[in-house]
Write a structure and sequence with these properties.
mainly alpha; 3 helices; 71% helix
């Protein structure tokens, strides 16, 4: 070989900074909590809650989804 690149790429390894790893973990944990909350909002137990509690829980659900979306946008940048 004369030092020329043959065009084959076997794989790319990306090393993340500690804060990036934490962000990935945080989003994964948040998404798991979102899934659990979503399941609860479709349950009979949720229907038994008073209206204000249900509305607050749905507001929390929306905020969690928004937070997950923002984390996803940040993650996409690295």
């Amino acid at each position: 070989m004369s030092g020329q690149f043959n065009g084959a790429v076997v794989g790319v390894v990306t090393v993340l900074a500690p804060h990036q790893e934490r962000m990935l973990l945080e989003r994964a944990e948040l998404d798991a909590r979102i899934a659990k909350l979503q399941a609860f909002t479709m349950s009979a137990e949720f229907d038994k809650l008073d209206e204000e509690s249900r509305l607050l829980m749905l507001e929390q659900f929306a905020a969690m989804q928004n937070y997950s979306n923002v984390l996803g946008q940040r993650i996409a940048r690295f």
